[in-house]
Amino acid sequence: MLSSKLVPCVRTITNLTPRLVPLSSSASSLLLDSYCETNIQDLVYSKNRELDILIKCGRINTAYELFDKMPLRDVVSFNLLISGYRKQGASEKGLFVYWELVSQGFRENPSTFSSVLGICSDAGLLVEGIQAQCRVLKLGLSSNLFIGSALVGFYMRLGQYDLAICLFDELPRRNLGVWNLVLSGHSRLGEFDELSGFYRQMKLDGVEANGLTFSYLMRGCCNEKFLSEGKQLHCHVIKVGLVESNVFVANVLVDFYSACSCLSDARKSFEAIQMGDARDVLLGRQIHCCVLKVGFDCRSVHVQSALVDMYGKCKDIESSVSVYKSIPERNLECCNSLMTSLLHAGIVEDVVEMFGLMVDEGIGLDEVTLSTTLEALSESSLASLASCSLVHSCAIKSGFETDIAVSCSLIDSYLRSGDVKLSQQVFDQIPSPNVICFTSMIKGFARNGMGNECLKMFDTMIQNGLSPDRVTFMCVLTGCSHSGLVEEGRLIFNSMEATFGISPDREHFSCMVDLLGRAGLLNEAEELLQKALRGGDCVMWGSLLRSCRIHRNEIIGRRAAEALLEINPKHSAVYLQISNFFAEIGQFEASMQIREVAMAKKITAEIGCSLLR
């Protein structure tokens, strides 16, 4: 028999006394005076825990039903729902709950305003955010650092930089978090002079910078005219040891040098990142030794599970398995840690076998077990419709069929198996599907070449008040590309920034170049590619060159070939692709010359078909 649902719930009780208000005449008839104050608070706290659990399980509609039936609520009850709706991208519902809170006479706390302003910034609701600020002023909370930081972040994200700076200047004190918000906003504008001015002011205030601070400063230098300033920053972060210890700084260095066309330095910065895993596992082993010394290896299952997980994430799967085998009594948490470790290592067949072992030994299942198994099945040679259905049955029996993570994994598994109908059934049973659920369906439709269905699902998502993210747009554009929906893809791409405030990144540009190239719109594809971040990359130019081969466009194809050689002059696949292009358009002599150059430089692996085909 499968164990009951295990949902972790850790919560800290604040010292504040919550305000409790009866919500109906029937509720007011309760003999509240027969209970002491502590019991009343315990009752509300208990209900709030139930709300928290439901929201974490993705059952936001059920949570609201429970909330609606609660005879007593406090501000935490409202905050949980507002935050839950924000995570699901349901801005209108979140704001409705907030207006309920205000209308029923509750006083907001800093967490309330943080969630409400987060909703407003996510959905681009400037007016509603200003109304929330009016409430802050009315309640006399404008000097609260937590709320002030949320307001600065809100105005920064909506492009109201002057308003954000005015609020920032009025804060009685400013911590590292709010300084980083200001630096982040100006880094998006590429205003390095402003950035450096704020950084100097930050140092004068005695605030110590962290890796995120330097990441924003480096992003402000992503222009060739600030190359010297960026190199000075690079020297500084090396001096303070952030390149080795902070992955954000290491990654932004690659972006900086790429943007400044210093490709050799970008490559060196990228290669330096590859040493991170080895250092991490060394630190992990040192902590493991401390665990052994104090005897936690036998006494704490949480520590053992964390060790299994740590070694797995550091790609030391042998140590992960070794720790797991040393655990005297294996429970659900330990098994889940090993399953995710095996999945990260790509040993998917063992994940499926582990699932069977857990069922046979009665260890139990939870949402992590089910979603991990489904993901492994999606990548495994053992994957079949029957195996997906078996895991689906286990999810239903254990009560996790409506869990967001499990539902999305089921949708993906069924769509990979080609069963669109079953995936649609799973989606339809989700009480309140969020952005991830919709994106999973759109991704599946795109994979199966169902571009029109992608667009319909995208429209439904917008009508439900959800805001698409970068991944959603990527999946919709892929569906349009695979189905040849040029006009629709163009409209979706243009709406990203104009309607939703999301700047297209290189993956979105690459997908559009592919879509236009497949349709033979090579001039438009080339123009778009040149507008892309840093003028495109190997993937984009390679896609354009393939389209030029198909449509036999020699002029644009030659330009694409030149761009590819400039970006990556040492990769054999680039030469082979260019050689094949010239052969395809009848330029056999040029094709042979390119192959000879490749051989002379000893950069070609095998003379044959291109690796990029």
TrEMBL record:
Coiled coil: none annotated. GO terms for biological process: RNA modification. It comes from the Eukaryota. Gene3D superfamilies: Tetratricopeptide repeat domain (1.25.40.10). PROSITE patterns: PPR (PS51375). GO terms for molecular function: RNA binding. PPR repeats lie at residues 74-108, 175-209, 331-365, 434-468. This is Pentatricopeptide repeat-containing protein. It comes from Erythroxylum novogranatense.
